[in-house]
Amino acid sequence: QPDPFSSTIPHNKVYFYLAGYMLAKAIQDGHLLDLNLTKSFAKHILDREILISDLEDIDSDLCKNLKWMLENDVDELYQTMTVEVEVLNERFTKELISNGYDTFVTNKNKKDYVKLICKEKMTNEISEQI
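and the corresponding structure tokens:
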């Protein structure tokens, strides 16, 4: 998984372009590559659907907690449709939907919450790199 903060490095997109070009050339030439890519990043490359189980490579505790939410009653958790994000050693809360601070996760919308968290962690955080 690319580091979400690599976008702060000057000319970072050039490095990602070069790495992608080299990977494509190796595949095109039939070379076998021993790469350690997260499932979600590999799925982005292959344009495949991202699943909650793909989050385990990035944050196994979060993955376990989200699976717990899907299997249990969450109405009493009082979790809002937000996610806590850390950027350059500063933590802040980000809304996953408009009015997310005031929208609680319920048994009816918990699947949407899990999908939004997965999208945030595996796609939005690295959107500049992919």
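(Above: one complete record from the training split.) The CA atoms of residues 4 and 125 lie 5 Å apart.
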